[in-house]
Amino acid sequence: MWQRLTLTGLFAVALLAGACTVDPRPDNPGGDQQAEQQVEAGVPQEYRAKALAHARDRQIDACGLHDPAAAEKATGDKGDELVPGSGGLHECDLRLHKGEFNSTWRFNVEAGALFDASSRKSAAPENLGGLDIFVTEHDTSCEIAKPIDDDYAVVIVANAPSGKDKPAKAPCQVLREYVTALAPTWKELPKRGSGRTTPEFTLTRLDPCSAAATAMDMFAEPFLETSNPVTCTARSMKPAPPQQRPKGVGRDEVTVTWVMDDDPSKLVRAGDDSAREVTIDGRKAVLNKGSNGCTTYIVWDPDVSVVADNRNPEDETLTQQIRVTTATCDNAEQIAQKIVAKVAGK
Amino acid sequence: MSRRLTAVVLAATAATALISGCTSILPGTAKPESASSSPREPGTNCKRSANPEQCVEWVDTKPKQGQDLLAQSTQDELITAYMLCSAVPTEVWDELLGPGHYRFIGQGPTCTISSDDNRKTPDGKFAPVVEVEIAVWAKDPLATDLAILRGKKELAENVSEFTIAGKPVMRYGTPEDADGVGRDKEELSIAALGDVNAPGVLRVRQTLRAPRGTSYDAPIDRAPLTSMRDVVVTELLKVLFP
């Protein structure tokens, strides 16, 4: 059954009062330590610090970093929906609108974005609501980063409405107001499972590297590397010599990402053999040939889905999916089977 | 591409990238033993660098001159970088970059001197930032760089030659380096001893970047860069290669 992703209540009604209330239940004591200790053995020393940071940031409830009521106040528009990013479950979009066919502002949050000394050097330091942040202004968007440590941050980007209606406020003015309102919440970044948002996306309890590790035996001198809190890649220390790859063949590596996406069956079309549907351990999966390799979408939990468009709630729903990219589709199903078995704990 | 051409292109890359501090293509030891007592941990200035983990704090060191400095650079790159950073006195940098400038040894044996990136304009906005990077290369003459870069049409069109303080200078710059958008550069290689065929090149890259918090494609006024370019090189030559 689909549902709206909410902050402690119905999005359109109760979130105004409830959004800023963090569930008073204490976080799992020692939970962070546990996460820190669970770096996959295949992650080499040089990437372990990054993997630790990503494991920590995977615990942040990206959608819980939003407050739709505050966004409505800052923009003057109406809240539309919270949508976990299809780029990965460490991202979450909040969309707003003025009317039925008039989408306006979009706020994208990324938890655990790379934000190192070089980024800090070029962004402008400010304090909003007691929060030390960095601002970068663009023509039609604005970016604010709240560092988590020396190298990573929560980054929020406000994208102004496109089209002929110029918004009354500049993107950075809107975002400053929004982040000022978010400051009390961002001082203690909300954790997944704290109840701040429902439903909980249980895939994020797992380390994508433990899934990617199942593909290590494909490579000579294999290793694992995370690229964000929900993505891990298995590849070889001994890359093949540079050569022109045939069209449709991707890099010789296996990448696993936890995402929210719509029904992958939509990729399967009559008369087009680029996508095919299979069942893996009772779960729907679609293998899709692309110009840069093969992407397999495995629906992890069809019973938990969220609305991607409140104005079209039955057609646009998203589910938690395991996205696996491989060089070709030739062995993608076998790789997906191993990954699902691992993630399912079999 | 033939093997020979590959080697030449790599050499050109090394030549032009030397100033950027790409240690992976530099010969020699980046952090020699003789500098072991120098501060390695990021300190006040390194914390403000783009890469604190690779950065070494500057130590004020009386510079050697001419051939002695070139010889020094083949023996001890870090000490040489200290010397390059120490060549021009604070008062001169104050005039060129404004008060609050700071120096550090960035990635590789390159001295970096930056204007205060927290400096604000009278209207309370962050000011543009100017960075000067300085390095010396003792092993080849400027003629080698010129031959490599002039030898390829797409590189040659970015090369110009002139003199500063009587010494031959090669400027390498793409149109984007001088378009007044986001980040502009003046990248100069100077025949340190005055002869393009004599080994010894002083490299000075001056970068102007948009104020903190502004977009990479924000318009910038490159006038400060244009006006200070020759002055910086003249000041450095005065001390290092009189």
From TrEMBL, chain A:
Superkingdom of origin organism: Bacteria
- Write the record's keywords in alphabetical order, separated by commas: Signal
| Secretion signal, residue range per the UniProt entry | 1-19
Q: Which PROSITE patterns match?
A: PROKAR_LIPOPROTEIN
Specify the protein name. Uncharacterized protein DUF3558
TrEMBL record, chain B:
Q: Which UniProt keywords apply?
A: Signal
Q: Where is this region: Disordered?
A: 29-51
Entry's PROSITE patterns? PROKAR_LIPOPROTEIN
The UniProt record lists the keyword Signal: yes
Q: Which residues form the signal peptide?
A: 1-20
Q: What is this protein called?
A: DUF3558 domain-containing protein
Question: Origin organism of this chain?
Answer: Lentzea atacamensis
